[in-house]
Specification:
Strand content of chain B: over 45%
Low-confidence stretches of chain A: none
Number of domains of chain A: 1
CATH architecture of chain A: Sandwich
Shape of chain A: globular
Helix content of chain B: under 10%
Order of helices and strands of chain A: EEEEEEHEEE
Number of strands of chain A: 9
Structural class of chain B: mainly beta
Radius of gyration of chain A: 15 Å
Strand content of chain A: 35-45%
Radius of gyration of chain B: 18 Å
Number of domains of chain B: 1
Oligomer: heterodimer
Structural class of chain A: mainly beta
Mean pLDDT of chain B: 92
Low-confidence stretches of chain B: 242-247
Distance between the termini of chain A: 13 Å
Number of helices of chain B: 1
Largest sheet of chain A: 5 strands, antiparallel
Mean pLDDT of chain A: 86
Helix content of chain A: under 10%
Largest interface: A-B, 41 and 46 residues
CATH class of chain A: Mainly Beta
Chain lengths: 131, 251
């Protein structure tokens, strides 16, 4: 279970006036397992119509950052998930989380960067948890 | 010629009702090699599906669904899970970043997706051999047992998604697969994501195949599991797409 209190700001934001602009975090050092969770923290999902938000995790190998995984959310579907509150006893969702973890037999990255895009203005921050 | 592991995308996962989730290889797979995807998901509507067209990539390759586990309801709860295995046994020449996307179908409003993509060498041109599925409630989730495989050199891929029978709000203490299967991705968190595991096994003799997992704390789960085996290319056998590319066909 991922708790909001475990997540730390990754210095990536989408300012309200920057429609569709990509925002990228600084370097985030990888933890012992090489895993990472990235969370889009926003209170604006309920006010957004037809807004698509993309979150990407980039991993650094041999000094180079390469795309590792991504996900796309539609604001209405995020709103529906958060309105559902819980399912089968699961905790209420805190919002969109993208996560990645290397195969145990593959090299672990040295660092990560996270990037966010939005099709419409949204005020949010990206928070991360490295494991 | 035996099938061999080349590399993995690592485990990618997303929660809070994503449209889709994608994983990328850190370096490009080789033309003519196979790419497989093992995925599992949950949602709160019974029409949840990892459909036949539920896996794509950004390289114009075509993925077939080898097998899909049953859509399993967790008791009487509005909580459904599914698992599936996709493959393209001979990819074209890739460029840029090779990204696989999994996009479950369904009208649910909660959802989480977990997946892993793997590059393999040595697949036969028509590689899919035998499959099996299983689902329900147990302390030992399984894929069920396939019919006997057709040849000695094959690859078995298994995947399973599970949730605690009593309450989905758990993180499993452990999920362990039987035999010599190699864990390719494991998710213990059934609260934020969807617990489950993806495994592989290189086969060298014919026989029936299955994978069975032991879960610890919780000891009983609802689950959706499936397994598929893929034939290795036989020396002097059918011409693979890789060979055609070497001959300049389809370039």
């Amino acid at each position: 279970m991922i708790l909001a209190s475990q997540l730390k700001a990754a210095a990536a934001t989408i300012p309200e006036a920057k429609r569709s602009a990509a925002r990228e975090s600084g370097d985030i050092l990888a933890g012992p397992t090489g895993g990472i969770h990235a969370f889009i923290d926003s209170t604006e999902w309920a006010a957004l119509d037809d807004t698509k938000v993309t979150l990407e995790i980039w991993a650094q190998y041999d000094g180079l950052f390469v795309p590792q995984c991504s996900a796309i959310w539609t604001s209405a579907k995020v709103r529906a998930a958060m309105d559902t509150k819980e399912l089968g006893g699961r905790s209420a969702p805190i919002g969109p989380i993208l996560s990645w973890e290397p195969d145990a037999r593959m090299p672990k990255p040295a660092a990560f960067r996270v990037r966010v895009f939005s099709s419409k203005p949204i005020t949010s921050s990206v928070k991360v948890l490295v494991e | 010629m035996a099938i061999a592991f080349v590399k993995s995308t690592g485990k990618f996962r997303a929660t809070s009702n994503p449209d889709s989730v994608s994983g990328s290889f850190a370096s490009l797979p080789a033309a003519g090699n196979a790419v497989t995807v093992q995925a599992w998901a949950y949602d709160n509507a019974a029409d949840l599906d990892l459909a036949a067209g539920g896996c794509t990539d950004n390289q114009s390759n075509s993925y077939s669904r080898a097998v899909r586990g049953p859509v399993t309801q967790r008791g009487a709860a509005a909580d459904y899970m599914v698992s599936a295995i996709y493959y393209d046994e001979s990819i074209g020449t890739p460029g840029g970043t090779f990204t696989i996307t999994v996009n479950p179908a369904g009208t649910g409003s909660f959802g989480a997706i977990v997946g892993v993509g793997i590059e393999w060498s040595g697949f036969a041109a028509s590689s899919l051999d035998v499959t099996q599925t299983a689902g329900g409630q147990t302390g030992s989730p399984t894929t069920g047992t396939t019919a006997a495989t057709a040849q000695n050199d094959e690859l078995a891929l298994a995947v399973m998604g599970c949730s605690d029978a009593a309450n989905a709000d758990v993180t499993y203490a452990s999920i362990t697969v039987d035999g010599a299967h190699i864990e390719r991705a494991e998710e213990l968190d059934s609260d934020t994501y969807q617990a489950g595991e993806a495994d592989s096994l290189i086969l060298t003799t014919t026989g029936t195949q299955s994978a069975t997992w032991t879960t610890v704390s919780p000891a009983s789960s609802w689950y959706s599991g499936c397994i598929a085996t893929f034939k290795a290319a036989v020396a002097g056998g059918a011409v693979a797409r890789k060979d055609l590319l070497l001959l300049g066909v389809g370039q």
